[in-house]
Amino acid sequence: MRATARLLFSLRAALVALLVGLPLGASAQVATLDWTIGETLLALDASVDGIAQVEDYHRWVSEPRVPDTVSDIGLRTQPNIELLAQLAPEVTLLSPMFAGLVPRLEEIAPTLSLDLYTPGTDTWEEILTLTRDIGSLTERDAAAEALIEQTHAQLAALRECLPPSAPLFMVQFIDARHVRVFGANSLYDAVTQQLGLENAWQDATNSWGFAQQGIEVLARYPEARLVIIEPLPLGTAAELERSGLWRQLPSVRRDDVLTLAPVWSFGALPSAQRFAHLLVEALDGDVSDARLAKR
């Protein structure tokens, strides 16, 4: 199955190369609306013309930072078509969620959709495949393999310095009463598996790997340790301080809630590295060896 998927990708990539009239190499200019593809392109040091919503990318994804030389091409769901036409990228890379924009975007440049977080697949293996596909498309194959090896080395080092931990209940707040709980098919779950940690949420999730729940669901997991991934919606922290329900939740009463800086929940290897490092550090692990592995 994986070999078939790789063959289909190679055929699509070859078609794009034919359409643009040259091999898509390290010098080919690429634009993307998708932050997961964007962070991977930047991590591979590929040539990037434009990324959508750069300010929000820095808020939600954080790293790798988008260089000043990369143009902000507008909203992910409503890109600046005029600016894209001026940039004239040789290819625009998308994920399936932006399929409705393809007809307009293809008036400017060929587009190629790259899959990730496909239901029923191994999320970690799919992230590795995406990394290799982007590396192949941009002739950064060696950089892709180096990123994969670096990630595995860092995760192995982090796993060695992990202290014992209760199962983790990983959430992002929608508002003061509702959270996204991350489980199967999510980046956070894939990373915790790589680290040998237990995810408390074993119930169903959507295709993006989360289930929307009221915060009262946390009371059903009294032994779990709550992990909150920022950013919090405006005003949520103040509302939680006033919430009697929140103060009575087991993890809150024990004062062992972990709050992590933003990590793109639908990310690839750069986000996986960032999440693993922040999580282990928050669990009071000694991350010095992992820092060496990251270098």
From TrEMBL:
InterPro entries documented for this protein: ABC_transptr_periplasmic_BD, Bact_iron-sidero_bind
PROSITE patterns according to UniProt: FE_B12_PBP
Q: The Fe/B12 periplasmic-binding domain covers which part of the protein?
A: 29-291
Q: Which UniProt keywords apply?
A: Ion transport, Iron, Iron transport, Signal, Transport
UniProt keyword annotation of Repeat present: no
The residues the entry assigns to the signal sequence are 1-28
Where in or outside the cell?
Cell envelope
One Pfam assignment: Peripla_BP_2
* Keyword Cell membrane assigned: no
Q: Which residues cross the membrane?
A: none
| CDD domains to which the protein is assigned, alphabetical | FhuD (cd01146)
- SUPFAM superfamilies in the record, alphabetically? Helical backbone' metal receptor (SSF53807)
The main location is other
Cite the PANTHER family for this sequence. IRON III DICITRATE-BINDING PERIPLASMIC PROTEIN, IRON(3+)-HYDROXAMATE-BINDING PROTEIN FHUD
Similarity comment:
Belongs to the bacterial solute-binding protein 8 family.
The name this protein carries in UniProt is ABC transporter substrate-binding protein
What does the record give as the organism's lineage? Answer: Bacteria, Pseudomonadati, Pseudomonadota, Gammaproteobacteria, Oceanospirillales
